[in-house]
Amino acid sequence: MRALLRIYREDWPRVVLALGLAVLATGAGLLKPWPLARLVDGWTTAGPGVASDTARWVFLLFVVYAIHAALGSLLNLILIQTGLRGLRRVRQSVFDWLLGLSLRRLLGRPAGDLIYRATWDTCAFQTLFQQGLFTFLTAGGSLVAMSVVMWQLNRTLALVALATVPPLLLVMQVFSKGIGTRASSAQSSDSRLAERFQQVLTYLPVVQSFTAEARESEGFAVDAEVALEARARQHRFELVYLAGVGVAFAAGTAAIVWFGSKELAAGRITLGTFLVFLAYLAQFYEPLQQLSHVGTTVSNAGAGARRVLELLEQVPEPAPPVNPLPLPPTRASGRQIEFKDVGFAYEPGQPVLEGFQLRVEPGETVAIVGPSGSGKSTLLAMIPRFLDPDQGTVTMDDVDLRRLRLGELRRAVAWLPQEPVLLPISIAENIAYGMPGATREQVESAARQAQVDGFIRRLPRGYDTVVGDGAVRMSVGEKQRLNLARAFLKDAPVLLLDEPTSALDAESEQLVMDALQRLRKGRTTLMVAHRVNTLSLVDRVFRIGPGRENNG
Predict the structure, then answer these.
(1) Which CATH architecture describes the domain 327-412+492-552?
(2) CA distance 400 to 327
(3) 27, CA 20 to 30 Å: which among 97, 183, 261, 436?
(4) What is the 3-state secondary structure (H, E, C) of 304-336?
(5) Where in the chain is CATH 1.20.1560.10?
(6) DSSP state of 183
(7) Three-state DSSP class for 178?
(8) What is the pLDDT of residues 321-363, one digit of tens each?
(9) What is the spatial distance between Cα 416 and Cα 495, in angstroms, rounded to a whole number?
(10) Residue 40: what pLDDT?
């Protein structure tokens, strides 16, 4: 609830307006039965001029109903708009959280689950606001107003109507926790289905090449059955809950009719007043019905909201520095990088690095080689703080990286991953991604340095050609050279290369090698590499692995 109030705090003028409209709508609802009551009482007395009275009361009946409908529509419009504004803020918060996600946390979370939480679970906050918090306030206020008016009309019947409230509250109390537990289980099952979809889309060529479609389909069928049963358990429990609510309402209505008929027969109320009371009874049960649904709504939506808050309430990683230090001025030859007694483990008790030592001087190009799983890529990931060491420190120009502002640190580093990445935007925008204010001339110059300008100009729209998922097909070498062009344009003093030529053919490798030879000049470069041709670029080879942690 605190999180919900925090999210909608800036919408307080809209909330106040909505509450005012709710009061007016409740008042109009209280007036709705009275024109009909006056008509009935007029017909029972059958005095002269009843026809003119009928026309007047019918017109008033139309006006009251029309006003009530207009107020209700306007109220719902404001609530929907306000709810959507809050939903947008929650999704923005989750997206911003994803942008700051560390590599350690990213590797520990299925992408499908994160996508499900960001898209579907965030809707829970809109539901909690509109159908939870606001329904509770408006239905509660309407219930109080109806109780006061019914008490004024006939205390006996009012007491009978109010007697249904304690059983209803008891039913809500008994069932609410069970509904929330089953809703959370169902959402987790749906999240696993989203993971299945995401995994198949990512690895579809592998699945097809190994003719594993039937196996994957069977696995999905199992998960789908689990999700179906989880949802079925949730809905069965909800139906039992609603049945209990219905029984309470049925008993209350029967009791009102029974006692009301006795009051009418005794002449203590008129037929018109009895009809008004029955109309109020329906309006009295309407907010009670809404409040009964609030329990289900809050339990269901609360499960989704908690899954979102699990993300947003995590301590930031990497942690921002409390008292950040400025990064020393860049030297003409690059920056100094040093690993001091670095230890790291992805899983407790399974260290990847222990007591690692390495010093890279400004302008030096160092290749890190070693067997798979020895921590080579992990070392590169520590420099832009995608990962932080569990023990020891990593420094840049003798300043602990954890004392630097994250943005300032990462602007000093150009990172090329093993799998070249292109975003679904134009080639020019891809190259200028790290420098969005770059001119077209700067973009083209970077492309020429990366030896990819000729390829770009042969494309249908040149630099304006959209690439990325579902767009123009490109070879790995072409993608890698575009990534190199991005690094040329960024012009960072530290260059990190993770197997830059591992998946290239001979021709593409030579083009990338030529580009790397130019790119590394005036920069401090760390490279994970195995190919002999690639190692010819470096000043020093540093081997890591069992028993060779400090062998240069």
Answers:
(1) 3-Layer(aba) Sandwich (3.40)
(2) 10
(3) 261
(4) HHHHHHHHHCCCCCCCCCCCCECCCCCECCECC
(5) 2-312
(6) H
(7) helix
(8) 888 999 988 888 889 999 999 999 988 888 899 999 999 999 9
(9) 8
(10) 63
